[in-house]
Specification:
- The chain has 13 helices and 37 strands.
- It is of the alpha+beta class.
- The protein folds into 3 domains: 223 residues, Galactose-binding lectin (Jelly Rolls, Sandwich); 159 residues, Galactose-binding lectin (Jelly Rolls, Sandwich), CATH 2.60.120; 246 residues, Phosphorylase Kinase, domain 1.
- The strands form 7 sheets. Strands 1, 2, 3, 8, 11, 14, 15, 16, 17, 18, 22, 25 and 28 form a 13-stranded mixed sheet that branches. Strands 29, 30, 31, 32, 33, 34 and 35 form a 7-stranded mixed sheet that branches.
- A hairpin with a 2-residue loop joins strand 31 and strand 32.
- It is globular and about 85 Å long.
- The two termini are 28 Å apart.
- InterPro entries: ANXUR1/2-like, Kinase-like_dom_sf, Malectin-like_Carb-bd_dom, Prot_kinase_dom, Protein_kinase_ATP_BS, Ser-Thr/Tyr_kinase_cat_dom.
- Its main location: membrane.
Length: 726
Amino acid sequence: MKNSELVLYLLSCFLLHLFSSPKQSTAYVYTPIYNIAVDCGATGPQTGPDGRSWTGDDSKYAPTEQSINGQKSISANAANQEVDRVPYYTARVSASPFSYLFPVTSGSTFIRLYFYPSDYSKFNRSSSFFSVTAGDFTLLSNFSASLTADYLQQRVFEKEFCLNIDQESQKLNITFIPFPNSYAFVNGIEVVSMPANLYYTGENINYIGVDNTYQLLTNSALETMYRLNVGAGSISAKDDTGMFRSWDSDDSFLAGKMGVVPFNTTIHLQYSKISNYTAPDEVYTTARTMGTNRTENMMYNLTWTLEVDQGFTYLVRLHFCEFQPEIQKVNDREFKIYIANQTAEEQADVIVWSGGNGIPVYRDYAVTNNYENPNTKTNLLIALHPGQKGTTRYADAILNGLELFKISDSDNNLAGPNPDPKFSPPNQEPQNQKHPSGGKGIGIIIGGILAGVVIIALIGFLVFQRRMRRVKDAASSDAASWRGLFSFSTIKSTKTKAGDSHLPSDLCRYFSLAQIKSATGDFDPVFIVGAGGFGNVYKGYVEISGHSTPVAIKRLNPGSQQGVHEFKTEIEMLSQLRHLHLVSLIGYCDEDREMILIAPECLKKYAEIADSCLNDDGTKRPSMGDVVWGLEFALKLQESAEERIKTGWAPKEKQHKDIPTDDSLMDGDDVFSDSVVRALKSPAYTTTTTTSRSVQDSSTTNTTSFDSENFVSGAVFSEIGKPEGR
């Protein structure tokens, strides 16, 4: 952004704050039929930070329980209480299912669930995985509040849903179901009625990319993904129109230029097209536009980037109101609207929709993102662009507010995948530190890119060569087929060995079978990310020094060709693997004749990048920018794993020389295979496997997911792993 644009933007924000009229926090334009706020785990009446009344769940809203092995829910206090007291200091926690039953009237209702991931009594923060149902709908499944909070970089958060209560039942049952060897918790629950036609309008909605229209029926449930006050600050729940909705600022969702933020707090809004409870007045008296520079405006889009779950249909609601005095007539400001890279409106004109200045309106759209990679996340882009010269007086566009809702699928499901753990970026150089001067800096960048191209090309050649060999001898292949990572869990390990283990005690960590079962939901198929003749591979997260480290958990079949001796040899060799840029085996389990290995995930990323570059569909191959990002992410995974293992536990190290290129390491087997063990008996060795990822940037979405039986090993990865190779 140019300095002049930045100054103009900051000045607009300052003036908006300076001259905004005081909010009327008590004069709600909508009064809910019922307004229930339960502070879970608390006793008696409570008062929230905004003055709202809450009640403890020792009241008529006390939960009912389905005790398992005598375990009942408890009221627990958060270990860390650096948050608002209500509703986050206390929680209802249980290793058994528990339910809340609310008496309500028929019609549409909001459900809000409040979460503060913390240690509660004997329950660890990262060990909570559970599902939530409301009536016939699944709201959350295999849900990790700790992973979600870490991803959002927030200590506390809420999840909002909308559904309909039928005339016959007039009650709402919300049930929390923990996964095996895990627990469920909730800090607060809100149940608030809404007007029947607020979102379930019964109107035909413009279905983006589809010839037919879409109709949102009352047999569908919604999850609120985003609710943005465009061009201004956040609006708290108490300043909503009476339904206690929170509106966030859109600043952090903008991609590229931020435009300008006009406002008009003196205008008298006329709600002749929509109800006055649709959104607070502030939404319609502030906005974001592109500005007055016609030439510059024609060269870019005003774009918002919103991360969503794939495989669902979404309701997009855009709020508009022309309040600037110069916009009074049709064609004064005409623009285009793009949703998910498709044209939603070729000639959008707020005056045409509203009939005049100062009249709020909204437009609803439905869009279904692709189903090729379910249980993954992608970016949904909403963009505005000025109309063509000659059709509009001002080459500009405007948006006042934005709401995005996920619509339940045919199975009445709203649950999406958990986010992957976020890694903080590498430390940046201080601002006053000297950087390479012009030509030299550019040369370094170009050289790095060329080196990356060469490395990826080499990896691609190795993958292709190995594939050709495997085609010729497919019958002898028994490699794993890695699939998309749908869910994961976290387990803690112990340094105490089982009494019946015959393995040396100084190799690596020992995990009990109970811990492995906890991480995999008692080997629930939902955690499987790969399978082969050797057995299944599960995705998990091992807690090392207080951090969650991604791992692959391989469980050998009793009928596998690999026996106890090979299993022991594999542990001995992999656990002693030590190299400047490699991470060794993390642990194993041999309890009850099981043969289970726990290995780091970091090196799998390298082979995944190579495989994605060879996708048969050219449109699905990553760009060079995506490749560089992927390599950086893989390196970060590796560095994080190295650091956590160093600080947590380290076995005796075995040093070795630089790793040469060895055909014996490129036989297509995975990190756990016999051939790798054979290769490790030589002075040089390194292994890697593949998994799936999602690559996104601020302007485009390029999601790559694949099934592969391909695993690449060799010196090339040790070269990529060197920090100076970046």
